[in-house]
């Protein structure tokens, strides 16, 4: 029996989450390749993108099913029908581990709810690699994916990042990088440490390190290419006695500049490192 036959024989029916390389194709594990060769159906974000990888490893599934952010829900019944026959169904994303800030989460939930087994072949996850190489504290990490593009939800998430005591990792598209860095510098403070990771595992891998303010300048002077992972250092609050009058003054400044009461409360809570209940009580006093 060949090594490949040994790999194939260990693959059981069910839904398989298969991690694919985030850049360097040599990072695809032999077990992942074995699952993809054995799969009857492979769900992917883009058939053209994934087709080149599958061709490289000699994987010829009976069917490729598009399961991206727009079509994942529609693919659920097809996947469940196939699983009901005892098939091996693989899920891959364009890069990295599916279901982590990528399609796959709803397929996993549907398969579990229907009583099918979910397996995985571990592999690259961009935010983990970015955090590990950042040089920032990694004992506790918060992953927040992509920020909302606008509105109160974006402001709320930014405020959460600002007061997060764990190292935080975000993803961002190149054309939105500068705007997000400007927002982060505003809410987190100009001196907050940030690492910009891009092209990881590729020929032009780049890790830029510096303050939030310097990150804005850097991003404005280079041509952003490829998706970025932003690693943001944890918030460090000094113990300072802050009076109620000072809190009310900070709230008034933000309300006068157009913030909603909720956003003003969140901003002051993050900026001063205070319990939200205390700021909320002062903001709602009559």
Automatic annotation (TrEMBL):
Keyword line: Cytoplasm, Methyltransferase, rRNA processing, S-adenosyl-L-methionine, Transferase
Cross-referenced PROSITE patterns: RSMI
Record-annotated Tetrapyrrole methylase domain positions: 15-214
GO molecular function, one term: methyltransferase activity
One Pfam family in the UniProt entry: TP_methylase
Biological process annotations from GO: methylation; rRNA processing
Matches recorded under HAMAP family: 16SrRNA_methyltr_I
Name this protein carries in UniProt: Unannotated protein
């Amino acid at each position: 029996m060949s090594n490949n036959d040994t790999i194939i024989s260990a693959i059981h029916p069910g839904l398989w989450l298969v991690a694919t390389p985030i850049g360097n194709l040599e990072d695809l594990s032999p077990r992942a390749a074995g699952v993809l060769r054995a799969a009857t159906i492979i769900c992917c974000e883009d058939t053209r993108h994934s087709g080149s990888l599958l061709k490289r490893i000699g994987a010829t599934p009976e069917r490729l099913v598009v399961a991206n952010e727009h079509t994942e829900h529609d693919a659920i019944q097809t996947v469940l029908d196939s699983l009901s026959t005892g098939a091996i169904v693989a899920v891959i994303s364009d890069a990295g581990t599916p279901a982590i800030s990528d399609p796959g989460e709803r397929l996993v939930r549907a398969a579990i709810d229907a009583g099918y087994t979910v397996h995985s072949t571990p592999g690259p996850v961009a935010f983990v690699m970015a955090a590990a190489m950042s040089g920032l504290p990694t004992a506790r990490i918060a992953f927040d994916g992509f920020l909302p593009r606008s509105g109160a939800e974006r402001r709320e998430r930014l405020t959460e990042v600002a007061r997060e005591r764990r190292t935080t990792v975000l993803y961002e598209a190149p054309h939105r990088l500068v705007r997000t860095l400007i927002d982060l510098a505003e809410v987190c403070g100009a001196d907050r440490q940030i690492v910009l990771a891009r092209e990881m595992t590729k020929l032009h891998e780049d890790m830029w390190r510096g303050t939030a303010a310097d990150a804005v300048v850097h991003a404005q002077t280079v041509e952003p290419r490829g998706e970025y992972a932003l690693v943001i250092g944890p918030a460090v609050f000094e113990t300072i006695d802050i009076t109620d009058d000072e809190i009310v003054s900070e709230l008034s400044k933000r309300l006068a500049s157009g913030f909603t009461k909720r956003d003003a409360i969140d901003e002051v809570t993050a900026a001063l490192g205070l319990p939200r209940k205390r700021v909320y009580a002062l903001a709602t006093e009559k």
